[in-house]
What does this fold into?
Amino acid sequence: MGFGTRSGRRRARWLPVAAAGAVVLAMVAGSPAGASSGTGAAAAAGAHASRPRSPATTYYLALGDSLAAGVGASPAADGYVNLVHQHELSRFPGLQLENLSCSGATTGTMLDGGGACSYPAGSQLGEAEAFLQAHRGQVAFVTIDIGANNVDGCVSGISFDLACVQQGIATAERQLPQILAGLTRADPGVPVFGMNYYDPFLAAWLAGSSGQGLAELSIPLADQFNNDLAQIYGAAGYPTADVADAFATDDTALTGSYDGRTLPQDVANICTWTLMCTNLNIHANAAGHSIIATAFDQQIDGWFAGGEPGLVLASSGGGLYALGNALFYGALHGAHLAAPIAGVAEAPSHRGYWLAGADGGIFAFGDAGYHGSMGGHALSAPIVGMAATPDGRGYWLVAADGGIFAFGDAAFFGSMGGHALSAPIVGMAATPDGRGYWLVAADGGIFAFGDAAFRGSMGGKPLARPVVGMAATPDGRGYWLVAADGGIFAFGDAAFHGSMGGKPISAPVCAMASSAGGGYLLAARDGGVFAFGDATYPGSMAGQALRSPVTAAAAT
It folds into this structure.
């Protein structure tokens, strides 16, 4: 991993200020094919079946570069791969580790061979394919981190070769899908968990004002690089361990501390969890390897959790936070969006999700298919929400004026577009069979279409705060409305299980989602989450510095 020399003990070749500039340019690369921030585009592919694993399942296959090999951890047994192995032993008793990683590995050497390691099958991928084929049904899961070394050698002293950097990133974007396709062919049922990267060059902050500027500039470019990686993994149907988020790469608040200095939280984390601030070594230390392992554990545990619940939160800037057993397939952190994100919907497979922009742009992740968007089209009012069809082959968008836009197999059942409204529409919910939907307005008014039955509303009644969202009951015979103060209004067979109305909350509630058993979850703009009824509390983002406020939520 990293942008340094190809050796077992990697040391970044940079002067404190120049290195951040090098990595900034190293991270400049185009988005993977199909990704766009303006009109919305798909990063979707077929879902991978997670076939039941027999009690004989005994192997964990690890692939990657020096991080997977445990470099930086002392002792090496504290490397993230070994920690993941230890964690999963409780799920898979007798689990055996097969670690094929190689320090200095690039996507090219993983695919075609060469580099510091030799394999009987000719390459790390070839060896992995042979192992998977020889142990069909016995490999519980695969982890992989690869790609950062593709720009290794493009930096020399305080100069860089931009053409080399761009070629290295483009090569990774071409070869990583080939690697994933090879793993899938070798064993179509085995889950693969990818990884994005922390930004070691935040340590340039310690070099003074010029270094601080470069460190700050590296963040959005690191976001873009990591978005690209997550979208490539997601396009193959595999989740990503969000190491960048675990390291709080975007948290620039002056809440961190290192060596007696107050620092931005992300800089302090890099100093605390890597070797950058002690000996200019880009590798994670033992504490950092533990953070990486936990990021992998969250995705692995979520994959094998079955029907256990989770929650995804979407922020206006394109951030996506997977809580509980929800899986992370990518986000738009740091992307230049034509309009803020206004809605999110979970794919019925729980292996992907859509983000909807206020301009109608659609961004698809994991196996959530792209079926069209309103991005680039003139709208009478901004999009404020979305809902997916039961089979995930379509979705609706709703605008603030009540206009409905249907894509894929989502049928149009009517809208409030062109009708006078007492208050703007703020959200929607679909019926369980996908043959109807409800729209909810800020005054609590409800508009029902198709087979969605009207069960009552708050229209015309006094509200302490405006309504901001709704959720339907599992059988579609009722629904809840939620107000910005966390107040809940239940109609039909929707039971009232409590609310945050009248209670102190640090930020307004902005969305809600229902659980399979009839409970509900509320999400606040600061990432706070509140669970009621049988809804399991999945954790929250409250208290963490978010680059943009949460605007939407969806239950998995």
The radius of gyration is 24 Å. Residues 2-54, 156-160 have pLDDT under 50 and may be disordered. DSSP finds ten helices and 29 strands in the chain. The first strand starts at residue 59 and ends at 64.
